[in-house]
Amino acid sequence: MECKREISVSKVRKDAEELFRGGFFCSEAVVSAIRSNFELDIPEEVISMASGFPVGIGRSKCLCGAVSGGVMAIGLFFGRTVQKDPKVEKTLELSKELHDWFKVANGKNALCCRILTKEFDMGQGEHKEQCIRFTGLVAGKVAEMIVRELGLKNTDEE
To answer: Would residue 65 count as lying in a domain?
Structure first.
């Protein structure tokens, strides 16, 4: 997939946070920030594929939606479209890397939305700032991984 060769990982993180603040949910914000910052020539409808993942998949409070969006973004770059294509192994490897990293990075040793938000009153929106931060963390990590794997330039390191 063709993409921009120079990326600001910090801008990806910030954009994802702003997209969440502006009305997207976590998974949508991650996919949208990756799509726009890497200038992917794919329809914006790909963002709609992430619309069912917020609040732990359809508000079921299972897997964190930001992580779901991150795995979707990894798939955009490294996923397969043909059966038995061995490149699926890279996708699985990177998805596990994101999973394991986020479990530590969020400070709660969890990926379950129910656990990540248990101290908040969801009805009052108390979780939103934490979820915005988690969304930015995931988008930034995914951008770092894509930059690393594709040999792109992170302009933050200039």
So the answer is: yes
Reading the block at residue 99, the tokens are 């999973």
What global pTM score does this model have?
0.96
Comparing CA positions, the residue from 44, 64, 39 lying closest to residue 54 is: 64
What's the pLDDT at 75?
Answer: 97
Cβ-contact 79, 88 below 8 angstroms: yes
- Which pLDDT does position 122 carry in this prediction? 84
| Domain around 45 | 6-153
Domain count, the chain: 1
Reduced to 3 states (helix: H, G, I; strand: E, B; else coil), residue 131 is helix
Say what the pLDDT of residue 8 is.
98
Residue ranges of the alpha helices (H) in the chain?
9-22, 26-37, 45-48, 65-78, 88-105, 113-116, 128-150
Question: How far is residue 158 from each of residues 6, 50, 146, measured CA to CA in Å?
Answer: 11, 33, 18
| Cα–Cα distance list, 101 to 4, 44, 50, 78 (Å) | 25, 28, 21, 18
Which residues in the chain show pLDDT less than 50?
none
